Amino acid sequence: MTTLQDEARRSAIAEYEVLDAPAADLEGLVWLAATLCEVPKAVINIIDDRLQHQVAAFGFAADVCSREDSMCAAVFERAEQVVVADSREDARFAHNPFVAGEIAHVRFYASSPLVTPDGIPIGTLCVFDDEVGELTPDRRQGLALLAEQVVEALELRRVARELRHSNQQLESFAGQIGHDLRNPLTAVAGFIELAATSPELDDAPDAKQSLARADAAAARMHAMISDLLDYARFGGAKPRREPLDLPGLVAAVLDDLGPAVAESGARVSSEVRVDAVGDPTLVRALLQNLVANAIKFTAASGAAPRIDIRASEIDGGCLLTVDDDGPGVPVDQRERVFELMERGRAGVPGLGIGLATCRRIVEAHGGRIGIDDSPLGGARVWATLPR
């Protein structure tokens, strides 16, 4: 009869997709286990409600056997390390076919459980020998650590699969919204062009200049949408690498945010005259999100924001910082606000996508992003861009 524990175990094993997939990433760990324990054989066993699956083995060919025949099945659910000098003298194993000679002649046996982060035992890292043996305390500890590494390797498999699935969904989403985003923008650009060529504006130079700026902003937005959709489509794995005109990018960002700056009364200063390398479109999107966030959350407190944008050289790259004099971000929230759909403050407009996008852009460049206290009294959001 299948129990709830069996169901949970079967579900956990399925998430790792380890039973029918190549286990090259695990072969080195069983070799290390055998070498550490000075035994000729080691194996990673995954045990479900019916079978024991030897997913990686050293010293013999991996196989599958019934759970009833498995030595590890007798002990792995207790999630404790087991070391037996001579299996013939242990009541749990004395009549097992791997000990009694029907399948093998195991004497020395040691195993450390494989336990998922959710506390579900799914198998063992097992070493054994046809000769009687023992493990020193250091080797017992080493075997336990290697078992933890097996679980880490399985977790990496699971996360990689989820990321592949997430990127597939993101690609599909990007394709679906691409048409809906570009069409209205194309229409806006068309109306701007039509208005700019109207004879009625011949005597209105200020209006013509405003329309020219609007047209330039629409062109930049179109380029940003195209590049960001490509970025989403390919998972952000390969941003372009080229010298960045940081002063030009900051100027473009402040031009795009001109209405927000004017409405909030923000005072924005910048000092970004250093060399940097990266994808211009993505770094512009990064800066635009950071500056827009600083304005939005500082202005929400009722004061005219003070924003300072800086870039400085660091070993191997560039450090970007955006400081504000707003309410800041509590220490216990400084990681959470980078998660998708997490908002820094209730009552402030937004969907909680901006900082998640920033982290995605920075990590695609191989950098890091975080939040500290600002010398202006609010928050400092910093990001590194490696060369």
Automatic annotation (TrEMBL):
Keywords: Kinase, Phosphoprotein, Transferase, Two-component regulatory system
CDD domains listed in its UniProt record: HisKA
Enzyme Commission (EC) number: 2.7.13.3
Protein name: Sensor-like histidine kinase SenX3
PROSITE patterns for the chain: HIS_KIN
Keyword RNA-binding attributed: no
Example GO molecular function: kinase activity
InterPro entries the UniProt entry points to: BphY/WalK/GraS-like, GAF, GAF-like_dom_sf, HATPase_C_sf, HATPase_dom, His_kinase_dom, HisK_dim/P_dom, HisK_dim/P_sf
Compartments, as annotated in UniProt: Cell membrane
Pfam families reported for this sequence: GAF_2, HATPase_c, HisKA
Record keyword Nucleotide-binding present: no
Catalytic activity: ATP + protein L-histidine = ADP + protein N-phospho-L-histidine
